Amino acid sequence: MRLKLIIFAISSFIVIMTGIVVVPIIFKNEPPSIPELYSPVNGATEIPVNTVFTWNASDPDGDTLTYDLYLSTDKNKLTPIASDLSETSFSKILNYNKTYYWKVVARDKKSKSESEIWFFSTENSIPLKPHSPNPKDGEINVPLITTLSWKSEDLDGDKIYYDVYLGRSIDTMKPIATSIEVPTIEVNLKENARYYWKIVAKDGHGGIRYGDIWAFQTKSEKKLGKPFEPIPTNGATNLETNITLKWKYEGKEALFDLYLGLEPQNLNLVAQNLGYQFYDMSVDYGKVYYWKVVAKSGNEEKESSIWNFSTKQLLIKEQVTEESTETSLITVESSVITIQSTQTEKNINIAQSKTNQTQNIENKNKKYVYTTGSGIGMYIIDVTDPEKPKIINHVYTEGWAVGLYVRDKHAYIADWINGVVVADINDIKNPKKVTKLETFGKVYSIFVKKDVAYILEGSSGMEIAKIEKDYSLKTMSYLELQGASGRIFVENNYAYIPMGYDGFVIVDVSDEKIPKLLSYFDAEGFAYNVVVENDIAYLADGGKGLKIINVKDKKHPKLVSKLTLESEWARVFVSNDIVFYAQGNKGFSLIDVSNKSKPILLTTIDTKGFCYGGYIRDNYLYVADGENGLLIYDISDPEKPILLSNLTNLYLQNIILEVK
Questions:
Q1: Residues 6+ apart with CB under 8 A from 272
Q2: 452-457, long-range: CB within 8 Å, 24+ apart, which pairs?
Q3: Structural domain total, the chain
Q4: Residue 332 is part of which domain span?
Q5: 390 and 526 inside one domain
Q6: Of the ranges 195-209, 358-372, 538-552, which one carries the lowest mean pLDDT score?
């Protein structure tokens, strides 16, 4: 263009100075170069819908160029989506899962050049996470015949297909319908039962979205009962001061509040939200006590009658030794005895000291299991005599207790939507909740190692929390893991997290503030849990059986051997080269794994219930058998387990002894 102006100026000057008309030399305009397309690359797939188009072109004459961008899903009907662009890039939001054709036209003032036509495909839009569940999450009194419903959308308009999972526990959910096309399904349920469910939405193009796990409880056809038949019986007299109050109850599942006082019209609450029908306590000598029990379920309450009992008077008559010839007659009116310093006192003190020593020895020799399952907290069961297990206490939690870990005289309870509840169990007869952690998601399971808690939440990921000196929990990090499920396990500096149908993952947690995902190990079935011992992982692979994996190389876990066990449900525990393998309604199996390459099935036992899991210690096997309660076996000979006891009237899914 500059050259043209110079020529025109020279021509004009010659005409003016000489009067001679000079015909200027006319130069031909050169069109722009053919635009070179950069991105999206020709034939590219999975291009984000927020697409950026880039290209370049030049002009031989140095003319300023502008650009028109053409786009269409029809190669023969390209239309401009932007004109007179001065830049060589342009962004536009496109539709999901579409094939687009595009070209660029470059222009100067007189001519234009056109690029070739390229094509690309945008990413598939996976369905939005299923939402708006009915029944609502945490709803109670759901009808026994009910319709589950939910909502989900697909932004690119694909048809959505749904898989519906339902179960009595988080780990036992299984598909009750697959690839259905409507977001509803009618189900028949058991009364007074807690259910967990989730939806998997699929679009038919490989797009899958896992929904959250929701929970609800069905209504009971039974009515709330009224506590009856007290022990001690109404009006009982001359009772000891260490007393166990008991009562009977018939009706739907309930919690109990216990009231006690010296006047029937002025009773005080002494125990709240008991999950069992007894309470141990100490009272004073020579008193008449009145008491009642209130049964509670939801917003309903029913009171027992007001009962009474009286304790005995304590008279102490002792012949005094040579140091004192006086005889003391003491009537005690409280549970604290105060007398003068005499030989009698010394004898009492010595006796009391011996008693305390005996109690301390007994406490050290006591053995307890800790269980969850019914959802109303944690039960503490004395199994010192394996033939006569006895419920000792209960820790009520506001959520639904679905897992636990016990260490250093503290229980860490995975309480679903209520986060993590920590209970002090130093005094086994008076456990106290000391703190709670509000978590990012619903808590499935928890593992404690030293002063760190590893918390598996929902199907979303793992939260790591520091255990402070007061046992409060402080979040340090969170690792997102879509599809996480089951029971988390930690050995050394590595966490092993089951991922359902995707096997399990290994996470480096050596730096708790920056957990790092190292590897996946795929499962043939459904990975329920992993237990690791000496770099050997034992995987409960539901539907397929036991897998033994060498995980010494954390980035490349390697299958060592497997043992086929046909049961949809699975959970493992290992002790002294014996693997306990829970098989749900098929009971459990014991497996010899002393030779990792050749596991040997020793025995399979039908437990009559639904075997959720178990724990081995000192040749005893403790089994959580669902509605069948607690089973205790002597497995000194693991080929021939001997059933020692069955504690019923409990619904158990998880069981653990205090970790040493």
A1: 257, 258, 396
A2: 452/476, 452/512, 453/405, 453/412, 453/420, 454/488, 454/490, 454/495, 454/509, 455/414, 455/420, 455/488, 456/414, 456/484, 456/485, 456/486, 456/487, 456/488, 456/497, 457/484
A3: 5
A4: 314-363
A5: yes
A6: 358-372
Retrieve residue 429's tokens: 């007869």
433 and 558 together in one domain: yes
Q: Which long-range contacts (CB under 8 A, 24 or more apart) does 174-183 make?
A: 174/568, 183/130, 183/149, 183/150, 183/151, 183/152
> Distance (Å, rounded) from C-alpha 624 to C-alpha 612?
6
Cα 384 to the chain's mean position, in Å? 31
Beta-carbon count within 10 A of 371 CB = 29
Residue entry with tokens 């060592």: 560
Residue 375 maps to which CATH number?
A: 2.130.10.10
Length of the chain counted residue by residue: 660
Tokens 């679903």 appear where?
A: 416
Q: Do strands 44-47 and 118-122 pair parallel, antiparallel, or not at all (unpaired)?
A: parallel
- Do residues 501 and 388 share a domain? yes
Edge-to-edge strand list for the sheet holding 578-582: 571-575, 578-582, 588-592, 600-605
pTM: 0.68
Q: Is 287 in the same domain as 334?
A: no
pLDDT band, very low/low/confident/very high, at 296 (cuts 50, 70, 90)? very high
Establish if 586 belongs to a structural domain: no
Residues 388 and 350 in one domain: no
Q: When comparing pLDDT for 95 and 376, which is higher?
A: 95
Phi and psi at 489, nearest 5°, equal -135, 140
Q: Do 320 and 206 share a structural domain?
A: no
The structure tokens 């709240």 sit at 272
Token pair in block for residue 366 = 């006591």
